[in-house]
Amino acid sequence: MRGIGNVCFWLAFTAVGLVCEMLIPRIDALICGFILLLQERNYRTLCWLLPLFVLLQEGLGSRTFGGSIVWYAVIFLLFRIGERFFNSGTFIFVFFLSAAFGAASYGLNVLMAPLQDLEIDVQQLIDSSLAQAIFLPLSWCVIKYLRLCLPAVFQPDPAKVENLHKSNA
Amino acid sequence: MSLRRILVIAGGLLILFLGMYSWNQSTRTLDDLSTDVGLEAAGAVLGPVRAAQDVLGGLWTRYVDLVAVREENEALKAQVTELETRLLANSEDLAELRRLRILLQVPVDNNWRPLGARVLCGQIGPNAVLDTITINRGYATGGRPGTPLLTNKGLIGRVLRASAHSASVLLMTDPGSRIAIYTQDSRAMGILHGNGAKRPLTVDFVPRDAGVRCGELLVTSGLDGFYPKGLPAARVVSVEPSNYSEFLAITAEPLVDLQHLEEVLLFEKTGQAPEVEENTASPSQFVGPPKPGKKSKK
Fold first, then answer.
1. Which of A52, A125, B108, B298 has its CA 20 to 30 A from that of A153?
2. CA of A28 to nearest chain B CA: how many angstroms apart?
3. C-alpha distances in Å from residue B52, one per residue of A12, A19, B297
4. Size of interface A-B (CB pairs under 8 A)
5. Chain A residues within 8 Å of chain B (Cβ atoms)
6. What ipTM was assigned to the predicted interfaces of this complex?
7. pLDDT tens for each residue of A123-150
8. Tell me: the pLDDT tens digits for B49-89?
9. Closest chain B C-alpha to A99 CA, distance in angstroms
10. How far apart are CA A141 and CA A131, in angstroms?
């Protein structure tokens, strides 16, 4: 039952994320789900959800396939590096991570644009990187506390969470 | 893990990624897959959201916010009367145009079919680097890649990528957009290209002696094979001789407000050849020079 609840939760999250992307242009609203799954070490869900995220972002975008793979790989790498210095479940960790993501978003766009011979609008790129950096901590807070308020079937496995707290401590 | 091992793994992953990227560039397999899945799923989610938004917005504007509706109604009635008068005055010209077309056997370009579509959203997601919008028609419902889009005011752009029921549209303001046009009055040909959102368009390759004026309308020439001939695209804002080439430096503005689009019209190619009405009836009276051999008697 918890498994079905988990799938429903993440599908609903994806749908709401798409609506957020519609309202705030050029940001990745699904990223906070990816961070949350990394924090929960829920790799089983990540296995099916991450390809869905990649296909959605690539399908919606106008770049050649590949940018989202690098983007999520960079996020994973930054998460792993940040985890060495901070407790990964805290707001301050997500705050610093979001600042790093904003910079990474800018750098990645500058790096990927010549591959497709695209002209870069620097002002637009800075705006979207800033929006990305501001959006992540807010959305992470909302999704984290919303998940705890929902019925038990939609919440992460308590045994896993306990193990995670122990390992963090 | 040692530094050497990390570098080897990173290098391997980079080679793997570049291999996938190059393979996809040549086959477009992953692009097609992501377009089919991503655009279709997004269309399925955003379509109902957009419909709900419209319903709620409609409830407010139609039933609650009715301030100044009476004045607006009277102004619209006056406008309708004026337009009816203008239509009546133009109907004779239109009939004459039809007669002349038949007489000259100029084919009417009727191999384009108009289709309505709703705009779902603007740029969406971190990969939306081009100036695009998403619409609720795909290749199964008339929105194939390359299909031109317009509103009642003028041209918007063309379909860039399409899934079965959704498509992303490249706007004419995108720096990658190129449209073959001519000026409506001076009939000078040129290429209209975008410079980014909220920036003026530029017209290239118009000779200095073309006689283009500010305020002149730019219409599609149809020579690029994407757009039908005669669609109004933009209006000339400034004309001056270029400092760097033998052409004019012309800037223009789109006729449509591309930041606030709701409904658009797609021009789908029907694949039919243009019809030519044959005038089989022999002319009743020969008009031309006198037949040879006949001498006029004085």
1. A52
2. 5
3. 17, 12, 86
4. 123
5. 15, 18-19, 21-22, 25-28, 54-71, 73, 105, 109, 113, 115, 118-121, 124, 128, 132
6. 0.81
7. 888 988 899 889 999 999 998 888 888 8
8. 888 888 888 888 888 878 888 888 999 999 999 999 888 88
9. 16
10. 16
